[in-house]
UniProtKB/TrEMBL annotation:
Domain CggR N-terminal DNA binding: start-end pairs: 20-82
Taxonomic source organism: Facklamia miroungae
InterPro entries: ArsR-like_HTH, CggR_N, NagB/RpiA_transferase-like, SorC_transcr_regulators, Sugar-bd_dom_put, WH-like_DNA-bd_sf, WH_DNA-bd_sf
This protein's name: Central glycolytic genes regulator
Organismal lineage: Bacteria, Bacillati, Bacillota, Bacilli, Lactobacillales
Gene3D superfamilies registered for this protein in UniProt: 3.40.50.1360, Winged helix-like DNA-binding domain superfamily/Winged helix DNA-binding domain
Keyword annotations of the record: DNA-binding, Transcription, Transcription regulation
Sugar-binding domain mapped to chain residues: 96-340
């Protein structure tokens, strides 16, 4: 039990107070310019009266600067906020699950956060903090991060912060072109969100995901497209997720013939356009412009972020295709579902 745990047990009201003040610092850290009290209150869902009371304490401690022009976080506020997040992150990790999961999947690294994204969306913020911590520790000063699309990474990306790009030249690049479906989960969009939140560079890849071989050969001659594709293949890190095969086949808007292949092949999961079965064998692969399986396994840092128990089978099978020196960052519900029937965690 750490100090925060002890204080929370002795004075439970401190937990709520700490949450409020930490949320204020987090919200302010996302803004380069001063913002008004009313805007800040709306962003963190507080009454202006409660916000005013807490801002006075933070101002007296020189963690925020308040003037007629608005409110901004100070350098000391950034430092203290980051320190508290690091301390609280330790409370949210589940090391026992991590050990069992790494052994079961035969991989080197796991990070499991408490909770279930299906009934608590704030778990995405904990996943984001975990991913950002790993990136902060592992990325060099000149770093490129390639990003796939999907709802999980879209939700995680909005919680990244500019701390990741401090003392580092950082760029985000999509790992594939655009495809049919929701705009906000496209690879381009997700990479752009992460670049915006971290105040990093962004290299777009504005091409359709599916092209004929002849058109692909022509389009990759364009300097901007070639630059993005080369950067994504040689990036320092790849952020990706996996999905359940049935859900992803509908999202990809496959033809009836393609759907039939997936059903007959008993596919359980999908990642970067590849549908695979429970043994990690490829059932069907969507022709696409961007990263291929042979590219993915070469990345020096590979972070797979997965959340929700419905992705358990897809996750288990995915790691039969992946190198062992990889990371799985997931929520408690996924960890339990993967381990169910294998360990004491049921």
């Amino acid at each position: 039990m750490d100090l925060i745990d002890v204080l929370g047990t002795l004075a439970p009201e401190l937990d709520e107070m700490l949450d409020i003040r930490l949320n204020i610092l987090k919200a302010l850290s996302k803004h380069q310019l001063r913002i008004g009290r009313k805007v800040l209150a709306e962003q963190i869902n507080l009454s202006e009266r409660t916000l005013r009371t807490n801002l006075k304490v933070l101002r007296d401690q020189e963690l925020v600067d308040v003037s007629r022009a608005g409110i901004r976080i100070t350098d000391e506020g950034q430092r203290v906020g980051h320190l508290i997040q690091q301390l609280r992150m330790g409370q949210d990790r589940l090391p026992e699950y991590e050990a069992f999961l790494a052994k079961e999947l035969e991989i080197q690294n796991c990070w499991v956060v408490a909770g279930n994204v299906e009934n608590d969306p704030t778990v995405f913020q904990m996943l984001a903090e975990a991913v950002q911590t790993i990136l902060g520790q592992e990325l060099p000063q000149e770093a490129v991060v390639a990003v796939t699309g999907g709802s999980t990474l879209a939700n995680v990306g909005q919680y990244f912060t500019k701390e990741l790009s401090q003392n580092r030249h950082l760029s985000f690049v999509p790992s594939r072109g655009g495809m049919e479906g929701s705009f906000h989960i496209q690879s381009n969009t997700v990479a752009g969100i992460m670049a915006q939140e971290t105040q990093a560079d962004y290299v777009p890849l504005y091409v359709p995901d599916r092209l004929t071989d002849e058109l692909s050969q022509e389009i990759v001659k364009d300097p901007a497209i070639k630059k993005a594709l080369d950067l994504s293949r040689t990036a320092n890190c790849l952020l990706l997720s996996v999905g359940a095969a049935q859900i992803m086949s509908h999202r990809r808007k496959l033809t009836d013939q393609q759907e039939k292949k997936i059903i007959e092949g008993q596919a359980v999961g999908e990642a970067f356009g590849i549908f695979y079965d429970a043994d990690g064998k490829i059932v069907f692969s969507i022709p696409r412009l961007g990263l291929q399986l042979e590219d993915v396994i070469k990345f020096p840092l590979l972070l797979t972020i997965v959340a929700g128990e419905q992705k358990a089978s897809a996750t288990r099978a995915f790691y039969k295709m992946m190198p062992k020196q990889t990371w799985l960052i997931c929520d408690e519900s996924l960890a339990k579902a993967v381990l169910n029937g294998v360990t004491q965690f049921k």
